[in-house]
């Protein structure tokens, strides 16, 4: 793609902003990347369309130091406030496209445009959802066994789906309860012969009929599901296993390598196959967990800092440019430096 010739051109009456780091996506992975990049001295912006899997959390689980009473939205709002206090820009905009020029990326958004030296994609994926009727998300319908299995110890649990992943999750839930149903919802099984043998030898009840109704308690939690044959089964909750739809359009447009199922391939520091382009969180292969996403964001932020920081100069640079002039340090972006001084002063008050 051809890069714009004037990176300060006007777009939708708004001048294009320039950043060292642009993070696309405002979940735990993207916000953590931005946090590290900003605190390590780089002008950083987060472009967030809102929503996402973390925002859907009714309660926050498995995040040390964060009470379960904190919702996903509260968790994210606190993170955004932290980012702003360190000097990062948080822009509630949807990135519609990214062009790659020589040494820079050019972002087009619903509100304008921006130029960045490094781009981090943290756009995640969307869980495949079964057709209604369904329990409320977070009040009987869940997508993460590792996050939520604990709340179903000794409870009646369902797993929706007809593939290997659904069958496997149903058997995994036997580690927490002895009452597990696998709901096919009228579909034919699509799991392997090996999985079929495993299911035969595990006490999982396979229910083939379609779900026709949902019964909730006064607190909003699921109490039971109704089925096409007239039966009613009591459940505290369960898991839907219908795959994932990776939000990888931007990565694909830039030519980043992806797995067969659509996740963006990265190394251990979030670097993609495209120079200067990183990806973190649920957009990449691996466990889809808030702490894991935060760890990936931290590692990517540090890797980006190492690629951007001014000092120490290399021997080749010193031979070409001479010794570092004291007037050229510190090597921190002026705006971030100013905000850091203000932040420190506020903490000292």
Architecture overview:
Residues 19-297 form the FAD/NAD(P)-binding domain. This is NAD(P)/FAD-dependent oxidoreductase. InterPro entries: FAD/NAD-bd_sf, FAD/NAD-binding_dom, Ferredoxin-NADP_redctase_2. This protein is of the alpha/beta class and 349 residues long. The chain has two domains: 10-127 and 244-308, FAD/NAD(P)-binding domain, CATH 3.50.50; 141-240, 3-Layer(bba) Sandwich (FAD/NAD(P)-binding domain). Helices cover 27% and strands 23% of the residues. It is built from nine helices and 19 strands. The strands form five sheets. Strands 3, 4, 5, 6, 7, 8 and 19 form a seven-stranded mixed beta sheet that branches. Helix 1 (28-39) packs parallel to helix 2 (72-86). The longest helix has 19 residues, at 290-308. The radius of gyration is 24 Å and the shape is elongated. It starts with 9 loop residues before the first strand and ends with a helix.
